[in-house]
Design goal:
Helix 4 packs across helix 12 and helix 8 runs antiparallel to helix 12. The chain is mostly helical and 461 residues long. The protein is globular.
């Protein structure tokens, strides 16, 4: 008998009496067949990893796959942030005035709300608040300009006297430099001034050519900021609810609650920053007045404005004051004013900021410095000013989403949600039947109700 033929015939699928092919035999049992384990693996195909990967991906260690996944996601987020920053910078003629208007609205909204509670029409209250705020800003800027113009000659003469004192110290002090050497060095510096001016002349002319468009852009941006500020004060909630219409209905309650808490944190931050800046400016101005440093009022106003850039701004403004004290009153007065600046900074960091800002907008100093650095890189001075308020808003917004506190509130009427949308919102947040009942209960408070109650408590307190 031909065994080869018999084996080949045995490998062919058997046919049933109806002519159909019989089912393929099951893979051999590893416990019975000696080579069953190998045949079983061959029958199953390539081995799968613990996370379901097959083929060559299964040969990559798990930590490497996780690191690669995180890497491309973080790179994508970073590219998105940079692209958004450059997009906002490209349209800075619009985004900067809107950002300024938002910050001013966060500062002036409590004043407008107080006027409305006392019977003033909403449009009139918004206009009055806008006018008063504008007058205060103009008063501060006018004070700075008048002090610089009035005491500028005194500063120049004091600076010349300070330079002469420096020359005398270099000649008679520990360095014992010869007067000829000092005069020669000063002569070289003086001789280079005309050359520098000639080289800068072309640049100055180029800048002057763009002054006209810059002035026009400045006034256009100012008008845009004032126009937007009025409508933010007058109908801010209506504008916000209109923006929410582009958001899926099931996500509107969560975003509305998070943005409301973020706006509250932004108002607290701006109000606290104004108070801290006022204390910084007053403290340094009092120290400068006591030392009879020229332009003490301008130094205080500059410190007030610079304090809106946390940590960095007040330090830079204080350094300007110390430099003025050095060239006008000598190094002893400069050291005393430096001590005043350090004392004011310690008061701000250890007392004022923790007490005024509280936990709602508490940010780590490293996060503040990183935010300011990113803001300066993407938007210059404007980016440095808005960086920390944006961080405060994002922190409050993300905390609200993490706490899922919108599940315990009824959605606001202007969100235009039906019962099915509320059910979907409850499911989106992983709510229970109890939270769904609260959301559907018409007597449950909304986010707007909680804000009104909070403002009443603050007014009474």
């Amino acid at each position: 008998m031909d065994h080869t033929t018999d084996q080949g015939a045995a490998e062919q699928p058997a046919e049933t009496s109806s002519g159909a092919a019989a089912p393929a035999p099951a893979p051999p049992d590893p416990a019975v067949h000696p080579d069953g384990a190998a045949l079983h693996r061959q029958h199953r195909g390539p081995a799968a990893g613990s996370d379901g990967t097959t083929g060559s991906a299964a040969s990559v260690p798990g930590p490497v796959r996780v690191a690669a996944s995180w890497t491309w996601r973080l790179l994508l987020i970073g590219v998105g942030i940079v692209a958004l920053g450059y997009l906002l910078r490209y349209f800075s003629g619009l985004t900067v005035p809107l950002a300024v208007a938002l910050l001013l609205a966060a500062l002036l909204t409590p004043t407008k709300a107080w006027l409305v509670r006392h019977g003033v029409a909403r449009a009139v209250a918004a206009a009055l608040t806008l006018v008063v705020g504008l007058l205060l800003v103009l008063a501060v800027l006018s004070g700075i300009i008048l002090q610089v113009v009035g005491q500028g000659p005194t500063l120049v003469s004091s600076s010349q006297a300070g330079i002469m004192q420096l020359i005398a110290w270099l000649s008679n002090g520990p360095l014992q430099l010869a007067p000829e050497q000092v005069q020669g060095a000063l002569g070289q510096v003086t001789a280079q001034i005309p050359q520098r001016l000639e080289s800068w002349a072309g640049q100055i002319l180029g800048v002057a050519a763009g002054v006209g468009s810059s002035v026009a852009s400045f006034f256009a941006g100012t008008f845009t900021a004032l126009f937007a500020l009025f409508f933010f004060l007058y109908s801010g909630r209506f504008l916000w609810s209109s923006c929410l219409r582009i958001v899926p209905k099931r996500a509107r309650p969560a975003i509305d609650r998070g943005a409301t808490l973020g706006w509250r944190a932004l108002m607290d931050y701006v109000r606290s920053t104004v108070l801290v800046a006022a204390v910084d400016g007053m403290g340094i101005m009092i120290g400068a007045l006591a030392l009879q440093v020229p332009m003490a009022g301008a130094i205080g106003a500059l410190t007030f404005l610079a304090a809106f850039v946390p940590i960095v701004g007040a330090v830079v403004a204080g350094a300007v004051g110390v430099l003025i004290a050095l060239v006008t009153k000598g190094w002893i007065a400069a050291l005393i004013l430096l001590g005043v600046v350090i004392l004011v900074q310690q008061l701000e960091g250890n007392v004022l900021q923790p007490f005024l800002m509280g936990k709602a907008v508490s940010l780590h100093p490293l996060a503040i410095l990183l935010g300011i650095s990113i803001g300066v890189t993407l938007g210059g001075i404007a980016g440095a000013v808005v960086a920390v308020p944006v961080l405060a808003f994002i922190k409050a917004f993300s905390d609200s989403l993490g706490a899922r506190d919108w599940l315990h509130l009824a959605p606001a009427a202007d969100l235009r949600l039906g019962p099915d949308d509320v059910v979907a919102s409850n499911a989106l947040g992983g709510g229970t039947e109890e939270t769904l009942r609260r959301q559907l209960d018409p007597d449950s408070p909304t986010t707007a109700d909680l804000e009104r109650r909070r403002r009443r408590r603050e007014a009474k307190g």
